[in-house]
Design goal:
Elements: E1 6-11, H1 15-18, H2 25-44, E2 48-53, H3 62-66, E3 90-94, H4 105-111, E4 116-122, H5 127-137, E5 141-150, H6 154-168, E6 171-173, H7 175-182
Parallel strand pairs: 1-2, 1-4, 2-3, 4-5, 5-6
Helix pairs in contact: 2-7, 5-6
The structure holds zinc ion (ZN).
Length: 184
């Protein structure tokens, strides 16, 4: 991994996904790993991008299935306190599972000269997976931080990881392994 061509994309580490409307204890357990990944990347000069749900209440298709969550402008749509964006980070709002769908994430990555996205956040088998799908299809290499992502259940997590490996050739590494590779 060439750190000049990588960016970390942290998916939906928002209050509603961790402690709120769609709370997830396994997601809460990933917070220290997400923090280590984000802080390590900042130190190495690797861009940190937050891909955050920001739904329009009463409008977004996805809310019919999941109920209201991460409604734009609410506390539930804010990044969890431990992982707050810092100066120099990027925040890209989304209204669907994929961080790329009708957002400017691809434009941002291209202008930053990124060819490899390092994914973390929630949920491995849903928003992380759909973001990985678009990243792959747009020509990016995909790395997944295995301890900085999770799902509601262990089964969903394991299914997500194996799907990412098999379908997008995702490199699955721990946060420590990723930071060690980027620091070389
Ligand atoms: Zn959503």
């Amino acid at each position: 991994m060439d750190k000049k061509k990588c960016a970390v994309v942290m998916v939906d580490m928002l209050n509603d996904f961790v402690t709120g409307a769609l709370k997830c204890d396994r997601g809460l357990a990933t917070v220290p790993h997400c923090k280590e990944l984000i802080e390590g990347c900042r130190k190495l000069g690797v861009p940190v991008i937050y891909s955050n749900d920001a739904h329009l209440k009463g409008v977004d298709h996805e809310l019919k299935l999941w109920g209201d969550h991460a409604i734009e402008g609410t506390y539930g749509a804010e990044v969890v306190p431990e992982l707050k964006p810092a100066e120099g980070d990027y925040v890209v709002k989304k209204r669907r599972y994929s961080g790329f769908f009708h957002t400017d994430l691809d434009l941002l990555l291209r202008e930053l000269g990124v060819d490899t996205v390092i994914l973390g956040g929630l949920h491995t088998h849903m928003c992380v997976r759909h973001t990985a799908a678009d990243a792959y299809q747009l020509g990016y290499d995909v790395v997944v931080a295995s301890d900085a992502t999770d799902s509601f259940t262990k089964e969903d997590y394991e299914y997500g990881i194996s799907y990412l490996k098999a379908t997008y050739g995702a490199k699955v590494l721990t946060t420590k392994e990723i930071l060690a590779e980027l620091g070389k």
